[in-house]
Prior knowledge:
heterodimer, A: alpha/beta, six-stranded mixed sheet, four-stranded antiparallel sheet, globular, B: mainly alpha, two-stranded antiparallel sheet, 2 strands, 76% helix, 2% strand
Amino acid sequence: MSINPWALSIRDLSKTYTNQFTALKGISLDVAPGDFFALLGPNGAGKSTTISIVSSLVKKTTGTVSIFGCDIDKDFSLAKQNIGVVPQEFNFNLFEKVEDIVANQGGYYGMPKALAYQRAEKYLTRLGLWDKKNQQARTLSGGMKRRLMIARALVHEPRLLILDEPTAGVDIELRRSMWDFLKEINDQGTTIILTTHYLEEAEMLCRNIAIINQGEIVENTSMKTLLKQVDKETLVFDTRQIHPQLPQLPDYMLRVVDDYSFEVVIKKGQSLNPLFTACTAQNIEIISMRNKVNRLEELFVSLVQEHKKEQNHKDEASI
Amino acid sequence: MNAQQQLIAFNTIVRKEVRRFTRIWVQTLLPPAITMTLYFVIFGHLIGSRIGQIHGFDYIAFVVPGLVMMAVINNAYANVVSSFYSAKFTKSIEELQVSPTPNSIILWGYVMGGVLRGLAVGIIVTALSLVFTRLNIAHLEVTLLVVVLTSVLFSIAGLINAIYANSFDDISVVPTFILTPLTYFGGVFYSIDMLPTVWQWVSAFNPILYMVNVFRYGILGVSDVPVAPALCGIVLFTVFLYGYCWYLLEKSGKLRS
């Protein structure tokens, strides 16, 4: 085991599958201990391949991966003791009992039976599943199955927890309770890496972020720094009455959405007062205002599109 | 992972496997009991009474060891192939793959599950056979050794099949087209002395012939094959299959893309 300050350290990681598809093109990434880290990217970008390599489900082509200083090839056992994985798809035996699924996982990590069942009770209780402990997993709802996978991943109390789209298909109430739970275990010291398609979720939970596209890291920075890059946003205004005509303002680009709302694109730091003044002068009463899309979402789309354009230019140049 | 932790992981896999085949006992333990009872009634009792004696034993007594072994072979194989392939299919095998459990422990855990089902079925079928005939076990140690070795061998074979399988069809091909013919031509129902010379020679290449005959030697004290070399052959074959199975799990990339 080497002295390595990172919870997860990935160096020049590449993966080419047997069908010659290159999913990862030499990515490097560091995640600090205690971090809540977002790994974002469009479908097929390489997120799940990265997670599968880190959790030893897929063999890497080149590169190194270490978890709390333990190389996944050389310190196989220690590296695995430090990591818990919640995959995207349900991957448990649907006919097994909920409690057994969690306790068995403890057994696979070498935990004595009594301790494994004690931990199963602890995490199933915390995730609101203890009353289902004797039910077969197939009888659980989708949200419960996701929570079951979180309980299973935590049974050996890993220092690094990786969640691959944990809230996909989960209703908003349950999603919020899962966010609270994840924040709680992160506050207690567990490093968390999260992939998600809900960018609002990443913005709310994560301190640092990497965006991956076509097997390459496009951006790797703190959430605050990234959000500072947002140079414009689209706001939607709802009006009380039908607005007959929108004010004409040279510095604002206004567009009618419907009879009761319009949208405006504003630059970063641009004042909204002239717009309100002009609306008031035209007897347009504004009753609410909201972002058209999440700020991170806007940035994410533009970064991914830019990267795609760059790639296309490179491809054309090489032809 | 230290030795104690590996033992815990092994016990966990075995416990899960035993829980699985006992939970679905109607699919795993009951069918061989019914099938073998039918064999005892039809081949042993009804037809067997007209056949007379083989090697100095009534036909029913002669076929019982073979039928017990047939049940052990089929069930040890079926347990591992279906359990491991289902784990692959549902991806629950990832529970083990992400854990620090070494591949050798995974291998032995599943094999032990198969062995226990094979032995459980063997005991059930032997108990049922006592309704139709008396069994005086001639060599207990040989009987136990060969039944355990055979169930280990076919559990490993089932695991190899499951590792290669890409569909549920693939896990039924070997039992249907290879295992069943080999078992039926493995001296379960007849002595190879009754075959023409050429077929005796062909039968010598059937590994199940040796297992059935060594088991029959353990129970009745008679065998068509020399017992010690046959036992050595079974051990060697088991070691070879174990090595190949370990290679598949550890090195081949059959489970990890």
